[in-house]
Design brief:
Elements lengths: L8 E2 L5 E2 L2 E12 L2 E12 L3 E5 L6 H8 L7 E6 L2 E3 L4 H6 L2 E3 L12 H6 L10 H5 L4 H19 L15 H14 L4 E5 L7 H18 L2 E5 L3 H7 L2 E6 L2 E6 L1 H5 L2 H8 L5
Parallel strand pairs: 5-10, 5-11, 8-9, 9-10
Antiparallel strand pairs: 1-2, 3-4, 3-6, 6-7, 11-12
Length: 273
């Protein structure tokens, strides 16, 4: 039973979801004369898995890019932990505890899995340039801690066997898992996943679904997820936002969305008699 009280709600399986951690208020994003996002509002609560769905071109990735600081909306405001967030660059958003994966894999193909995962630790590296250049003092301590964190993520995602393998040699499904590992290495409070199951076979989707649930359960990470596989969305998500041609046409639990006639007509493709 979903409770819209300010302090949160309890899911059907008894999980306690916290208060609003991020709120998108009346977001409008234009590219020239084209409105990619049209006056959309929704919130994300602490500890939940929040899905954004819709047909191709609906504006889902654009919304994720607004959240992560890649795009700045012409109208509307983003609130994070109760405060209005000014326009920020992606690295500034990352420092607030928000990490993401990409629809098109964005890894360093010539580097090993471990080195790719280590790049997710950049915001945790505070040593000065000289200390890092000579690997001395604080840089040594940071290196030890950051490698330990990276190895923990590698163990968690069960990719120990490929930790020294160049990413360019890996099959697609494992590359997607490495990208998730790099995002997790940043120790995010909010994890943004842009089509994490795209291009995967059934077995790979089952593995990725399990890892997403484990991240949410074991780390308490809030997850915002874009995904086209409706079976995955309905199984994983606590609440779902539905977009179509830049507009919001549905928002609620998976059951609410499944029974919303406008969503059915626009996206799910099965009309009532």
């Amino acid at each position: 039973m979903l409770d819209n009280a300010a302090e949160g709600y309890v899911t059907a399986d008894g999980r306690q979801i916290g208060p609003v951690v991020m709120e998108m208020r009346n977001i409008t994003l234009r590219f020239g004369g084209v409105e990619a996002i049209k006056n959309i509002s929704f919130d994300v609560r602490e500890g939940e898995i929040r899905a954004i769905i819709g047909p191709n071109g609906a504006g889902k990735s654009s919304m994720l890019n607004v959240i992560s600081g890649f795009y700045h909306p012409q109208d509307g405001e983003v609130f994070y932990r109760g405060s209005r967030r000014p326009p920020m660059k992606p690295f500034q958003v990352a420092r607030q505890g928000i990490a993401r994966t990409f629809q098109n894999i964005a890894l360093f193909e010539g580097m090993s899995v471990l080195d790719n995962v280590m790049t997710g630790r950049l915001n945790h590296m505070k040593a000065g340039f000289l200390s890092q250049a000579f690997w001395w003092g604080k840089a040594q301590d940071e290196e030890t801690i950051n490698r330990q964190k990276a190895e923990e993520v590698i163990d968690f995602l069960e990719i120990q066997a490929i930790r020294k393998t160049p990413v360019g040699r890996l099959p697609y499904g494992l590359k997607k898992r490495v990208e998730l590992a790099r995002a997790l290495a940043a120790e995010p409070q909010i994890l943004l996943l842009d089509e994490p199951m795209a291009g995967m076979n059934v077995e790979e989707k089952e593995d990725m679904s399990r890892f997403i649930l484990d991240v949410n359960d074991e780390f308490g990470t809030t997850i915002v997820l874009i995904e086209h596989d409706m079976g995955v969305v309905m199984d994983l998500s606590d609440r779902v936002v539905v977009m179509d041609y830049g507009k919001k046409i549905g928002d609620g639990t998976p059951d609410d969305v499944r029974s919303n006639q406008e969503v059915i007509d626009a996206y799910l493709g099965v009309a009532h008699d």
